[in-house]
Each structure stands twice: as structure tokens, then as C-alpha cells.
Amino acid sequence: MAGINRVAAKEKFLRFLEQKNLRMTSQRQVIIDTVFSTDQHFTAEQLLDWARKQDQSVSRATVYRTLPLLTESGLVHEMDFGKDYKYYDPNYADSPNHNHLICQDCDRIVEFESDKIDKLQDEISQSLGFSLKAQQLRLTASCDELKRLGACKNKAC
Amino acid sequence: MAGINRVAAKEKFLRFLEQKNLRMTSQRQVIIDTVFSTDQHFTAEQLLDWARKQDQSVSRATVYRTLPLLTESGLVHEMDFGKDYKYYDPNYADSPNHNHLICQDCDRIVEFESDKIDKLQDEISQSLGFSLKAQQLRLTASCDELKRLGACKNKAC
DNA sequence: GTGGGTGCAAAGTGTTTGCAAGTGT
DNA sequence: ACACTTGCAAACACTTTGCACCCAC
After folding, report:
1. Can you give the pTM of this predicted structure?
2. Rounded to an integer, what is the distance from CA B142 to the centroid of its chain?
3. 3-state SS string over B44-61?
4. Which domain holds residue B40?
5. What is the pLDDT of residues A49-90, one digit of tens each?
6. B40 shares its domain with B84
7. Among B22, B152, B125, B114, which residue's Cα sits nearest to residue A114?
8. Looking at chain A, which residue has its C-alpha nearest residue B103?
9. Residue A48 CA to nucleotide D7 C1', Å?
10. B79-107 tens-digit pLDDT
11. Chain D nucleotides with an atom closer than 7 Å to a protein C-beta
12. Does residue B156 fall inside a structural domain?
């Protein structure tokens, strides 16, 4: 499903820039092209690599300066997967409420949604006297396939 | 409820050290005393401050070297609240399954538990082919009291 | 006595920023 | 033209580490 709403996302980002009186530059173009042509989670450094394959002139500084714009526009979310660097998730344009399961065996990240959990989160927030604004649910799990077969179809198992 | 299981936690940590052939030193003593006499979340730097009030000789290096031991022992959990530094939560000894709601208005952190959510998380992991090992749920919310009264009984509202 | 522990300061690592030059509108 | 942007490299902030001395067992 890589970048199924790529065009829509890019347009939305353009509107975001306009509304904040910011400019579309060739570097930003390359960066958002890169971001919205994948559905993988990525780090700043990965994004820099990818973008540079398309345009050598993109600098680390510009990547780091563009990422906050992307998160502020809501098209990309900053994620913590327990590592020392931030991950960015470009799939919130398509599925604004999704959650993550990280396999501790193979580092695979599975995205999932659950209306039931969403509902419970809302109820809990209300009962504590708050209005829910955002949520982040991260499950860490181990791969049944690995345990059963001694290997799974992913990376490092 | 600050440190209700303080003694138990300290004993458990002692056993953890023994089992790994590590030693109890006066600095470690001070650090764990400090950790288990609060139920607040804290940063490394805060812990250093607190510990130094009790014993000037505790160094930043020792704090940073002790924290991984505390997390490895399971008595303290490393938390990400979206800041640039790690937070540590000493309440997992008492409530191993709790979750967090962070108020975006006043930065208050509320801990809560939910059997229903725990159960759903297990079901979802199973259905995806994994066995749940750990979970982290973080709700970001805004304070109803603030909205209604223009102020809430906490810090910065 | 020996192997782990400590404090100090230097080194790391991911990220941010000041500056002078460049560029979209 | 003006204000926003860029690349570069230096600066940052938090955390980790090498080393010589110290101390718990």
C-alpha cells in the first residue's frame, strides 16, 4: 500500500506550508516525495540517505528542519520504539489511529487498529476527568512462528 | 503511597545484585533509597540531585551506571514521555501493568490500570501470531477542569 | 588480594543552530 | 527586494566511557 495517498498527502503539506507562509523548495519537494513514497518507519538519517539518492544537495540540516514541519502538519508522527533516536511514521495520513506491535525477536513492526481499544481509551480518559487528544500504544511481543519452527520469515529470526 | 513496598523493593534489588555477582556499595545504597522513597517519575538528573542531598559523593556517572541495573531488575521502568531525556518510573514493583495519561495542559501524569485493555492487548497479539511480552500505553489528554474553570489544581494551568 | 565500583573529565551520539550565501514569491 | 531557506560546521544536551584509584567481599 506504499504511498497510496501520496498525492493527497503532498497537497495537504503544500496547503500547510502556504497557511504558515512557508515556501516550497526543491529540497522540501525531494524530502516529502521520499517520505510519501514509502510506508516504512524511518529515522532522520535514513530519510537523509534516501533523499540524497534522489538529490545530492539535500543536507542533514534541512532534513532535521523539515521533519518538525511534517509532524506539525500531522502527516507524519514521531515515534519512540525504545531506541536512542526518533522514528517517523508516514502512515498516519491513511490510518490516524493505528498502533504498533514490535517483535523482540525479529524487530518486525506490525501496525494494527482496534476500535475496542480506542473506545476504552476514551472512556478511561473521561472517567479521569480528561479529554483524550492523542494516544500511543506499543506492544512488545515475541514471534510464535520462531518458537514453533526455529525461524520466522523475517529478518533476524 | 510513596514507597509502600520500599523495603521489599530494596531486598529484591539486593538479590538481583547477588545473583549477578555485583556489590552493594554506599552509593548504590543511597541511589536505591532515593528511588524507592518516591512514587514520582524522575529523570537521571533529578535522581542525581536527590541522591546528592543525601550523600554529596554520589556522581553522575554512578547514577547513569545504576539506572540500567534498576531497569534490568524490573523494579524501575524506562519511560518515554516525548521529551529529549528518559524518565524512570519506580511504580512497576507495585503495579506491573499500569499505563499513563499525560495532561498536555499541566504536564500532570496520571497512572491507571485497565483489565479490559490488558485483555484486548493479549487477544490482539495472539491474533497477529505473537505472544505479548510487554506493553506501553500513553494517553495524551487535556484537562476538563482547566477548560471549565480556566484553571486546574495543578502546576501550570 | 582481587575483581568489581567510583569520580572525573573526555568522548559519543543524535539533534539543533548561527551565519553567510542562495532562492521562492 | 524581502523574507524565508539552505549547507556547513560548530554547538548542544543527554548519556556513555577510559582511566587511575578505591573498596566490598
Report:
1. 0.87
2. 22
3. HHHHHHHHHHHCCCCCHH
4. 6-89
5. 999 999 999 999 999 999 999 999 999 999 998 889 999 999
6. yes
7. B125
8. A130
9. 14
10. 998 888 999 999 998 888 999 998 887 77
11. 3-9, 13-18, 23-25
12. no
